[in-house]
């Protein structure tokens, strides 16, 4: 009974864990890229 429940829970969590691992991998790829140069005016908030 406990083994069946554990397998059922792990089968349900598998897609979630794959999605989390995929997101983490994409974050590493994005973080390793050099950022594009951005004009200074687009980074500064305009206050009125």
Helix content: over 70%
Please trace the helix and strand order, writing H or E for each element: HH
What's the story with the biggest beta sheet?
A: none
What is the mean predicted local confidence, pLDDT? 79
* Molecular shape: elongated
Number of helices: 2
Low-pLDDT segments, ≥5 res: none
* SSE-based structural type: mainly alpha
Explain the overall architecture.
By secondary structure, the chain is mostly helical. The protein has two helices and no strands.
Features:
48 residues, mainly alpha, 0% strand, elongated
In a nutshell, what does this entry contain?
This protein has 48 residues and is mostly helical. It has helices at 2-32, 40-43.
Helices and strands in order:
Layout: H1 2-32, H2 40-43
């Amino acid at each position: 009974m406990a083994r069946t429940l554990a397998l059922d829970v792990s089968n349900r969590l598998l897609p979630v864990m794959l999605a989390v691992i995929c997101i983490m991998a994409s974050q590493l790829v994005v973080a390793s890229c050099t950022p594009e140069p951005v004009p200074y005016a687009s980074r500064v908030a305009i206050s009125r």
